[in-house]
Structure formats: structure tokens, C-alpha cells
Amino acid sequence: MAGFRSLARQVRDPGCDLALRRYSLRKCLEKFAPYGHRATWDHLCARAGFGPEDRSPDPARLVAALEELEEARSVWLGYESEFTERRRREKHDGLRRPGSVDDWHRLTWGGFGVAWCDDPRVHPSDPLAEVLRRLIDALEREPGASCPVCGADRLVWKYGLDHEPSSGPVCGDCGILVPRPVLSPQALAYARRGRLLMPA
Q1: Which pTM value belongs to this model?
Q2: Mean pLDDT computed over every residue of the chain
């Protein structure tokens, strides 16, 4: 099975058939899809200016979509590298029990679904790399009360998500499944009850 970089080369290769180039871009999402496969595809198509069902998109638009995906992947791989190094140091220092961020991170290793969007048509509109930077920043600071991606406080607990975990706080504005470790206990409790956080 081809890896991400091999697939990316096919997307860029003008000697490849256009259908293969489009197919290779879709296959890249099996390796890295921050919103999940369908939502990430919808996002890339919208940002690059071609339709999700367009079988003959402009090759330059395919490459633009790939470049956005590659930048986001680079951001995520940098985070994973730092995460691995931190866990190595913690284990060396005798901290064997992982925390809640570590538990969440195990479910998202490789970058699939790190900002899961259960509805493939509802996802952040900002560049993927920027969304991931905001998410990483939130993972590295104290838990807060709002969505780390768009700042909205309309968090609603949803069940039956097509993801693991299958329930959790979903942002009512940008549609991501907000990682539990970035939210305070109060924010999680309000989301479970379907209420907005009241200003302090």
C-alpha cells in the first residue's frame, strides 16, 4: 500500500492520468484526515475550489488541496514528535501513568479525526494547519470553556458519533468533536446538560 508521500507525488505528477491524481489525493486521506475522511475531503474541495464529486478538477486545484493537507500534516507530525519525546522523558522520570491528553492522543495517533466532524458538511473553514495549531495550543494549556478552534461556547453533548469516543462535546458553530482534555469540568458538565456556559 502506498504511503502519504508516494501518493502526494502522484497527485503532483502531470504525467499521471487526472483520474489517478484525484484518486491519489483521496487516498492521502486514508493516511491523514483531521476531520475524518469525508469532512476533510469536503473541506479541501471547498478551499481549493472544486466540487467533491468533480471527476475532472483542474490539476492546479488538486495540488492546492494537497499543499494544504501537507502543511497540516507537517504541523501534526511535529506535535506527535514532541509528544513522543515528552512521554519518553516522563517514563524516564518514573511517570508511567498517562494523563487525559495521552488517553485522547492514543485515539488520534497519525492525525485521523483529531478534530472529528461527524457531519461531513459542517467543519471549520480556516486552513487545516491553522485549525491544528489552535487545537495543539489548547492541548498544551489549562482546560477552558469554549471550542479551541473557533472560540464558540455552543457545545452540545452528542451521542452515536461515527468515531471513538462515540459521544462527546460537539461545537455548535464549527462542528468539531472537542477533545475532552481541552475543556474544564464545568464546560463538560454544561455540554452534557445542553446548556451554554454563563459568563463569569
Answers
A1: 0.89
A2: 90
